[in-house]
Amino acid sequence: MVVSLTCVFSRCRFLHIAVAQGRRALAYVLAAKMAGFGSLDIKEHNGQTALQIAAVSNHHLILQDLLTHGAQINTMDLWGRSPLHVCAQKGHFLSLQVRIRPRGNSNKCIDLECLTPLHVAVLSHNAVVKETRQLENPCSFMTSELAQRKHKYLECIKMLMLMGASYGTKVSIELKSGQTCLHMACEEANVDLLQLFLNQPSSLSTFSGNTALHIVSSLQNIKHQAEAAKLLMKRGADPGTRNFENDFPSQLVPGGPIGEKARLCFSP
């Protein structure tokens, strides 16, 4: 049977619309047809496949159907994001929980900024932590909303790690100086993530030679700085380690009341 390209692309467009609208039954039928023609991964104008649209929309059941039909997980959109990156960025842990199982190196795929999905999830969690700290006298609704967002990103991080993602993977571009997810968490003194990552103590350093303790020590006006430093040392961080500039972590602590509290952590 000969099927015209026009017919195939029309079905593709209808599939994308059905997925975006959450019409699971219609999407299932169309996906089965498209899979039969080997065109399930055709992209629309934003470079997104049906699977990527399902990830963006958090239609996790449709996403599972598309995977069942053979949709590819490592495709990239115009922004260089895979479906895993999208879920990590938006906190769509339900879409991860339907078992977007790693195929090949899907957990290690990088976007245009050389970030893995786990890096993206950590940065998103950091952003919520920072937003929470900057609010003065937030209302109960805002407090609840921020707590829910933190929870979503934390669940994404846990799921990605269960799928095999490593918090020790470095970002190999100059902008991020070879940081790992652990170092990124340290930049915000993100205690929730530090507790998660430090279940397996690590002495990883960045390309500039700064350990996680160096990064926490150098933070400016972050009230959880002392708590983060204590946690790192409790889990094995060595305050006697020097970076490439021959500095101890204690030498990087800034002045001021918050810095003084952190400095006390290094007192014998």
From TrEMBL:
UniProt xrefs under InterPro entries: Ankyrin_rpt, Ankyrin_rpt-contain_sf
Keywords: ANK repeat, Repeat
Keyword Repeat among record annotations: yes
SMART domains in UniProt: ANK
Pfam family, one: Ank_2
Start and stop residues of the ANK repeats: 46-78, 177-209, 208-244
Protein name: Nuclear factor of kappa light polypeptide gene enhancer in B-cells inhibitor, zeta
